[in-house]
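Appendix B, Record 12. Input sequence as logged:
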Amino acid sequence: MAKHSKRYLEANSKVDRNKQYEPEEAVALVKETANAKFDETVEVHLRMGVDPRHADQQVRGVVTLPNGTGREVTILVFAGPDGQAIANEAGADFVGGDDLAEKVQKGWTDFDIVLATPDMMRVVGKLGRVLGPRGLMPSPKTGTIIPAEDLPRVINESRLGRIEFRVDKTSNIHVPIGKASFNQEALMENMGAFMEAIMAAKPTGLKSIYVRRVTLTSTMGPGIRVDANSATSMTPSN
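Logged structural output:
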C-alpha cells in the first residue's frame, strides 16, 4: 500500500468521503487542498454509464474553456505546402508532411496537439499506433482534421484553452480545467463549459444513467466527490 506524505494526509483530512459536494464547494475545496510547491492542475474525472465497446455509445468532443487551461501547449500540424505556410504564420510549433511523419513513426512525441489537413490523412493515417494510444490522432469529430484556411482559428483556440475529451475503454473521462491558482469564478466557468459539452455529447437513445460519478481533484490532492445532478446542470454562467 502506497505511503502518503504528511502534506497529502493533511489535505485529505479536509475532505468528507461520505459527502457529495456542490460544484462551488468542491472547487473551493480543491483550491484549499492543492498545496504542493508548484501550481497544480485541477482535473475533472467522470465515471460514465456508457459502454465504449459499442460505436453508438462513444462520447467524445471538443470544448474551448473560457479561461484557458493555464498551461502552454505544443502544436504539431501536418499539411501540404500551402497549409504549411498558413500554419507557420499562425504560430504552430512543428509543421511538415512526410518528413515529420517519419520522425513521429520513430517514436517522437514531444507535442500536445496534432492537427492535419484532409489531404495529409494519407500520411497521418499510418501513425495510429503512435498517436492513437496517446489520444492525439486527428479526427473530424474533435475538429482536428481541418481545411488549411481554418488552421489559424484552431491553432488560436488551442492556445486559449481548447481541450478534447473522449471516453476511455474503462468508461472514464479525464480532463484538465485549469490551475489551482485560478480564482473560483474562472474554475467554475471552465467546469461549466466542460460539463455543458459533456451533456451535449450524450449518445441518443442511451437508457442507462449517463454520468454516474463526478470527481474533482488537483495533481497532488485528494479526490473530491461532486453531486452529479448539480454538475450535469452546470453551464459556463452558473
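Residues 138 and 144 are 5 Å apart (CA to CA).
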